[in-house]
Amino acid sequence: MTRVETGAPPAAAPASAAALLRERARWSLFDLLFWAAALAAFFVFPLRLPLLTEIAILGLFALSIDLLLGYAGIVSLGHAAFFGAGAYAAGILAQHGWGEPISGLAAAGLVAAALGFATSFLVLRGSDLTRLMVTLGVAMMVLEAANKAAWLTGGADGLNGVVMDPVFGVFEFDLFGHTAYWYALAVLFLCFLAIRRIVNAPFGLVLRGIQGNALRMSAVGAPVNRHLVAVYTLAAGFAGIAGGLLAQTTQFVSLDVLNFQRSAEGLLVLIIGGSGVLYGGLVGAVAFKLMQEWLSNITTQYWQFWLGAALVLLVLFARGGLLGLARRFLRRRPARSERGGAA
Amino acid sequence: MTPILATDRLSRSFGGLRAVNEVTFSLAPGARQALIGPNGAGKTTFVNILTGVIAPSFGSIRLAGEDITRLSRHQRVRRGMVRTFQVNQLFPDLTPLESVLLAIFERDGKAANLRRPAWREEAAAEEAAAILARLKLADVMDLPTAEIAYGKRRQLEIAVALACRPKLLLLDEPAAGVPDGERQDIMAAIAALPRDVAVLLIEHDMDLVFRFAERIAVLVGGTLLVEDVPERVAADPRVREAYLGESLDGRAA
Ligand SMILES: Nc1ncnc2c1ncn2[C@@H]1O[C@H](COP(=O)(O)OP(=O)(O)OP(=O)(O)O)[C@@H](O)[C@H]1O
Ligand SMILES: [Mg+2]
């Protein structure tokens, strides 16, 4: 029985526990390639910058859903409420003469986070199904409120007269979308860094623990509800930043930012890319928008049909989305890595 | 001395069934006690009430003198009452290392940290590795829990609970379904717990019970039948009756 205290356990010798954890949090070649490609896109597709900006915004939106769904396991069909809240916050500020983009974006994030915090208490209890219904219901209420408050939001006509100051007082938002793209990309990258940090911190373990087994979480002393409120608020905040980006880069906000389609699209994009892996939302956004572009070019009328078909195939046959597929493909090729050897 | 755990007429009914019926029970700090009883006696329900997983219909619970009947689950854990589950309740996608680390972070109040990379918490990681090594999990600590063998997962149940640094540990059939060799490992790990940790062991294997327990409580049909030293419990005719001829003299039932 005292055997345990003598010599170190042989199997643990090669790597310390901290080193094992660190290994999982390392930057990889993929990170470098992804962001290099995002930068290169600016030069390679100078005429498609508005599309690329849309992709960045959609990617950030999906990333915020990933924090919620992919990490904490909270399903939502109403995440557009926060995207929209952020969009209106940034838009209305700019319309009223506060055109400074960075503080506007911060305001967008804060307003959305506040709305997220206020409604988080509704998603604490209940099953996935009740959560779907509650988030859907909240988003519907927010949409209708925005519609009714036409004096503030412009209602069905949309929010016009959004005028943005130059970024850092220097870079004007130009017609070609140069500034818009790198601004959106920079914001996306910073938000990505923040979320990456969060999921690599102890709180990231907490989120995966809640998804894995909320009962056990409470049995290790975790205040599960408090954690859920925190992640819901955070995810709402990041969605709000995405919405703010859309308002600022298009200088227009319509009720579309709040509709069900938007929530569904964010979810779709995340599932296509792969949830719970940070890049899922980003890769999904690229794939989704490109597929949409490509399909609507070759078949202007039926592209949604093919998009739907692709989605069904992906979900049925490629669990873990595109990134899951890629990982399995890469793993099969080289000889089994050191992890396989342990079993 | 204040008992670490004291229940007063603790009860819970499911419909007409009195799963736990007026159980008044106490446990001294550092106790080594077993809770036995036939299938369906209400042992797991008792633990579920103690830990706040289900609410009692009646009665109260004191932990080290403090009334915790209305506290939430995590508050009870924070006060030192920790349990394991009869049916594994683990984190399938986390590795054992991450699972134990998570418990340590919650215990130390570091779990809400959004900024500091988890791997920077080297002391916590080393502590987690040490706990895992103690339960012979060092070689699988970096595999997803869903991929490790059932016996190892049983060990992990205990490792996660130990990481919470309990004052009172409630073990619900920790060795259930575990092959003989590993069963000894589990019992060795339990026997090696610090003496100031009170342990309540629920177990059907009488061999293990009589080797481990300094006192034994017998629950039958939701009611506490006896609570005494092992020799007297084994000799008690009511207990023998409840077990319908099963041998209680140290051979497995
Ligand atoms: N959530 C529940 N709803 C209804 N009945 C329940 C519930 N939980 C337990 N019971 C019933 O309460 C009784 C006690 O069950 P419990 O699981 O506590 O027994 P146990 O002593 O742990 O048995 P075992 O040794 O088989 O684990 C059983 O009759 C069971 O069917
Ligand atoms: Mg039981």
UniProtKB/TrEMBL annotation, chain A:
Its main location: membrane. It is a multi-pass membrane protein. Keywords: Cell membrane, Membrane, Transmembrane, Transmembrane helix. It comes from the Bacteria. Signal peptide: none annotated. It is found in: Cell membrane. GO terms for cellular component: plasma membrane. It holds the Pfam family BPD_transp_2. The chain crosses the membrane at residues 29-49, 55-74, 104-124, 180-199, 227-247, 267-291, 303-326. GO terms for molecular function: branched-chain amino acid transmembrane transporter activity. This is Branched-chain amino acid ABC transporter permease. It comes from Propylenella binzhouense. The lineage of its organism: Bacteria, Pseudomonadati, Pseudomonadota, Alphaproteobacteria, Hyphomicrobiales.
TrEMBL record, chain B:
Transmembrane segments: none annotated. Keywords: ATP-binding, Nucleotide-binding, Transport. GO terms for molecular function: ATP binding; ATP hydrolysis activity. PROSITE patterns: ABC_TRANSPORTER_2. One of its GO terms (cellular component) is plasma membrane. InterPro entries: AAA+_ATPase, ABC_AA/LPS_Transport, ABC_transporter-like_ATP-bd, BCA_ABC_TP_C, P-loop_NTPase. Pfam families: ABC_tran, BCA_ABC_TP_C. Residues 5-246 form the ABC transporter domain. This is ABC transporter ATP-binding protein. It comes from Propylenella binzhouense.
